[in-house]
Amino acid sequence: MHFVLHFILMLCFILLFILGSFFFLSYFILESEMKSDFARVSEEYLDLAITIKNGKAVINKSIKESIQKKGGWLQVVDSKGYVIGEYNTPKELPKRYSFTDILSMDLNNFRIHYWILEKENSSEVTIIHGEPLKSKQILNTLLRSNSFPNINTDFKEYLVKNDAWIQIYDASGNVVYSYHAPPNLKFTYTEILSMKKRPWNSKVDISSYYFKEKDLIFLVGTYNPYYSPDHITDSIISASFLKSFLIVFGTLIVFAIIISIWYGKKFGKPLLYMMKWINNMSKGNFMEPKDKKGRVPILNKKGSLHKRYKIFKEVVDSLYTLSKTLQQNEENQRRMEKTREEWITGLSHDLKTPLSSLYGFSALLASNQYQWSSEEIMEMGRIMKEKAVYMSELIEDLNLTYRLKNNALPINKEKTDIVSLIKEFLSTFSTTTEAKDKEIYFESAQDTIFLEIDLKWFMRILDNILTNAVKYNKPGTKIKVKVESNHQRTIISIEDNGIGMDEETVKNLFNRYYRGGNTQDNDSGSGLGMAIAHQLVVAHGGEIVVESQKHVGTIIKVVFYHKNDV
Fold it and tell me: Which of 224, 242, 267 is the last residue before a domain boundary?
């Protein structure tokens, strides 16, 4: 979970960085356009570059430098007409504009540009920009002279001094007068309108005046200091874009390298270590890998998890658990193999003994050297039958335990009174040879207890547990079979005051390959009885609980849960 959260946070950071880079790229391009010609600045850039704080406009440094460079000025007017911000503004400009002031604004010597911005709370501000217009200054000088509409010598000298020219056009568009103008210069009205609409695309700066009395147009022109045609501006913007793109791209590359190194150190190294650990475990080495100095890299000097690996705490804990489980499984496997070998050895011995008897008696019967009496033949036949039955039961037990292990044994349950059933079983079991020297008695607080059981296998459970109790205990041992039941479960307890079992024997009591430590006095069993009993109880949906203490006795509780109360 920590790793996923960390990854999501890092992904968000990268996305924010990319978005910030694109924002920087866009801002840089807009600023380049503004610096090339302020008249072409976009509303988006002005919205970012001019902020309103406490009712006052704050103009950024780049705008001021661009305006100062061209000798222009700027005012910020709110929706009520008040000037809330200005820079390099002529003294004659008002601090508040009326409705008509804004619409009739036509300052001498300046070309005016407007932008409307929408700020917080949907309020609008108007940006007014004026840039010096030399042609207009010259034209106004002419209009103020006493000789107008005539062009006198003083004005001609003024034109030459300011590297300007004048042309006069009639109603037909013909040049009726020209002074200091380039040869063959003549404009159409579309060219004049185009230069007024996009003055930055023209090399000349023009201003015109309509002399109504004679229906003439006075056109004054000079060098255009704002000349920056679209293709040049586009080149500047493209260069700025390339520059800013390279900056952003280079920053992203550096950032990616730093992130890669950081991730490699923070995640790569721990992941490689854990992969090495898993690889070692696949080869049977379950201990955590150590470095050249014999230290465990994931642990600090205090023995706790190193800071670098804390994000992988769940994985490391799982690896420790897996390592411990694999070690335990390997130990269990070795113990199981050892027990299996011992069991096979014992089973081989148990089969070898009756086989030896069968072989010996069959050899005697087949021999012609002796004449056996009918009594002797009958006795040898009885012994051979007994040994064959023992071998058959041994093989059946082995087959049964494997069927139970693979859930291949059908359990046919029917509702049965187990009190009367156990009483009947004990009356028969008490007469067996091994049970005659034991005191067996039954106890139940209820006269009848009905339970869903498979009669055949339930009897086998009782027989195996009681056989085990009488087989390995001394004569005179008291064995009590007690039955108690409630609405949740039925418990059958087999208690004895015999020799008891140690912890190891109790732990392995239901292992089908295990023979307990008390079998030295009687080793004729197959070691499958208790394993079969346990598997049959589980097949009935129950469980067996064993409590035993050496030289005190043993209590085995067989618990059967009622339906829907497990």
Answer: 224
205 in a domain, yes or no? yes
Q: Which helix (H) or strand (E) holds 374?
A: helix 374-405
pLDDT, tens digit (0-9, with 9 covering 90-100), for 188-209:
999 989 888 888 788 898 989 9
Q: 390 and 443: one domain?
A: no
pLDDT of residue 527: 65
Is the pLDDT at 341 greater than 50? The verdict is yes
Average pLDDT, the chain: 83
Enter the tokens of residue 112: 């005016």
Q: Please tell me the predicted confidence (pLDDT) of residue 111.
A: 80
The b-or-e profile of 264-285 (16+ CB within 10 A means b, else e) is: eeebeebeebbeebeeebeeee
Asked if residue 198 and residue 323 are part of one domain, the reply reads: no
> Residue 220 maps to which CATH number?
3.30.450
DSSP code for 297: T
Nearest to 494 by CA among 404, 416, 565, 559: 559
- The pair phi, psi for residue 185, each rounded to 5°, is -80, 125
Beta-strand relationship, 478-485 and 439-444 = parallel
Mean pLDDT on 142-148 = 89
CA distance 229 to 235: 10
Q: Please indicate, yes or no, whether residues 146 and 88 belong to a single structural domain of this protein.
A: no
Residues 375 and 447 in one domain: no
Structure tokens at 397: 């037990």
Q: Which residue has the higher pLDDT, 392 or 312?
A: 392
Pair of tokens at residue 330? 């390997």
CA distance 97 to 105: 10
End-to-end CA distance of the chain: 35
Residues 150 and 48 placed together within one structural domain of the fold: no
Residue with tokens 């069991």: 343
Average pLDDT over residues 475-492: 94
The answer to whether 30 and 44 are in contact (CB under 8 A) is yes
Query: 3-state DSSP call for residue 298?
Result: coil
- Residue-number span of the structural domain to which 335 is assigned: 315-402
The reply to whether 26 falls in a domain is: no
Residue burial 533-543, b: 16+ Cβ < 10 Å; e: rest: bbbbbebbebe
Residue 260, domain member (yes or no): no
